[in-house]
Amino acid sequence: MFYRRILLLGVLESYGGSILHNKLQKVLFLVTRKQGVPSFDFVPLEDGYFSFQANHDLAALSKQGLVIDDSGAKWTLAKDQSFLDDLKEEDQLAIEQIQCEMAEFSETELNRYISERYPDLTKDSQRQKQPSEERAFFTIGYEGISLETYLNKLISSEVRLLCDVRSNPFSRKYGFSKGQLQKACKSVGIKYHHMPELGIDAAQRSDVKTKDDYNRLFDEFEKVTLPKRNRYLIELCKLVEEYGRVAITCFEKEPNECHRSRVAIALRKLPGWDVQQQDL
């Protein structure tokens, strides 16, 4: 079992085997702040911090019969089984410390406690920032990062629209298939738009293995495919004009190893394009 799931079960056990959904997220947030490498990442939502991965893991644990989603309000251990002893000593101590610090807190007090300790990460702090009026265009890949880290990159850059330029918006990595990503973006106030016309068909990638193969593929995409799809580049321009701050996304971490960099180059060649571009 993944260690992060054992941590979830350990937190549940420490609270007598049952805890409200929202409270579990907040406890988990505080516990992971004490870890050198956090087991979960979080994004700021209206009612506090939230980890999509933790919620996904809890759903998986429910399918395995280890936890019960009690009336959609509480997570409850399904079996009388101990998990705390399987955790690292420092994580056991972190859970114990958080329990002691929050023992008498109401939900309002708990929210205030978190916002005072982590003021730069709260939804309120995001609202207090003066929204940027400067138009900007970004590219971002999700390789090697969590959904939460990915969303926080978009949030910090004040991206208002995410354009998915994958031909096939499916991913084996949790959170990045079309439906999951669209839902996650909506939860943090970012619109999602799929533009498969600016993607590369999977069939074209089937025999691509080396760096030279990829360079040839991307060169052909830039010089042959994109000119034929100029109207979609113009549509993307109009979206930048409408939303002000737009990002395009695909898988690869490095933009020069991804076709999205060629989309960005094509945009710069369009008449009147004067938008600042940045790779996140």
Give a verbal description of the structure.
This protein is of the alpha/beta class. The protein folds into 2 domains: 3-125, Arc Repressor Mutant, subunit A; 130-279, 3-Layer(aba) Sandwich (Cobalt-precorrin-4 Transmethylase, domain 1), CATH 3.40.1010. The protein contains 12 helices and 10 strands. It has helices spanning 3-14, 21-33, 52-63, 89-102, 107-117, 123-128, 147-156, 178-187, 202-205, 211-228, 230-243, 260-268; strands spanning 18-20, 43-45, 48-50, 67-70, 74-77, 136-141, 161-164, 191-194, 245-250, 276-279. Strands 8-7-9-6-10 form a 5-stranded parallel beta sheet, sandwiched between helices. It has a 3-stranded antiparallel beta sheet with strand order 1-5-4. A hairpin with a 3-residue loop joins strand 4 and strand 5 (74-77). Helix 2 (21-33) crosses helix 4 (89-102) and helix 10 packs across helix 12. The longest helix has 18 residues, at 211-228. The relative contact order is 0.13. The model has no long low-confidence stretch (mean pLDDT 92).
**Do you know the CATH architecture of the largest domain?**
3-Layer(aba) Sandwich
Distance between the termini: 32 Å
State the name of the first-level CATH class of the largest domain.
Alpha Beta
Largest sheet: 5 strands, parallel
Mean pLDDT: 92
Examine the coordinates and then state which fold CATH places here, giving the name of the CATH topology of the largest domain. Answer: Cobalt-precorrin-4 Transmethylase, domain 1
